[in-house]
Specification:
Layout: H1 14-17, E1 32-33, E2 44-45, H2 73-85, H3 111-120, H4 135-145, H5 155-168, H6 171-176, H7 181-189, H8 216-226, H9 228-233, H10 237-242
Antiparallel strand pairs: 1-2
Helix pairs in contact: 2-5, 2-8
Protein name: Transglycosylase SLT domain-containing protein
InterPro entries: Lysozyme-like_dom_sf
Organism: Cereibacter changlensis
């Protein structure tokens, strides 16, 4: 069982917590197959998140993206994820297609209560929180971190869970230069359906109405802003000369 760091806030810094060989060393996300009775029965996916169409804010317009200040790269990636997911209610979000919503705001519920809500409401979407975590992924994250089921699904816990998934997508390999920024973007797109592939389409295009919610140009610009050195590694000599 993986021990939880003394403060969940420390999960926002990956360089120490997830160094190679540690308990938090990134590992490939296993292919997830839905079990009978779940909202994904008959659909095999690798995404950690729901495959239902995303809801737009009132008026159908997405709020402008604002990059967080400071040097916390994981915080910035999480902000891009939230922007792509297009949810209105932040840490209290749930899939709006659910006919029976959670009994109270998600950020005030314990992990046990979220699991109970899932069991009590079969046949509907159960993605929950700022990063729209589905039940199978939530259970996997609980097992990996060793969190008690009485832990509240508070913002810092949701952020910590998202950090684990970002690291699984190759964050450390990106930082040490063994993974390109373009490849990292593709791996993130395999987790969050709102992110586009270079084609502009979602990795899950055509599945349950999914489509990319931001352009590949904007996605690339945001990620290059977060990881400027990695972005320069991917430039050709001609483009490097044009972008000193």
């Amino acid at each position: 069982m993986i021990a939880l760091p003394a403060s969940a806030d420390t999960w926002s810094t990956a360089s120490n917590q997830w160094s190679g060989g540690s308990s938090f060393a990134p590992r490939p996300a296993p292919q997830q197959t839905a079990l009978p009775g779940s909202s994904f029965h008959g659909v095999e996916v690798r995404s950690s998140f729901d495959l239902a169409p995303r809801s737009q804010p009132p008026g159908g317009k997405r709020a402008p993206f604002v990059m967080p200040k400071g040097n916390d790269e994981l915080e910035k990636v999480r902000a891009v994820i939230f922007h792509a997911e297009g949810r209105q209610h932040g840490y209290d979000a749930y899939n709006l297609s659910a006919s029976i919503p959670p009994p109270r705001p998600a950020s005030t519920m314990t992990l046990r209560e979220i699991q109970q809500w899932t069991r009590d409401t079969p046949g509907q979407q159960h993605a929950i929180g700022r990063y729209q975590i589905i039940p199978s992924t939530l259970n996997r994250l609980i097992a990996r971190t060793g969190l008690a089921l009485d832990t509240v699904f508070a913002p810092n816990i949701q952020d910590a869970f998202a950090n684990v998934l970002i690291i699984d997508a190759g964050y450390l390999a990106l930082k040490d230069g063994s993974l390109s920024l373009d490849a990292f973007k593709v791996e993130l797109a395999k987790v969050w359906a709102g992110f586009p592939l270079p084609s502009g389409k979602s990795y899950y295009a055509g599945v349950a109405g999914n489509k990319a919610t931001i352009s590949y140009r904007n996605y690339s610009a945001y990620m290059a802003q977060i990881f400027p050195l990695a972005a320069r590694r991917g430039l050709t000599p001609a483009r490097l000369a044009a972008n000193p």
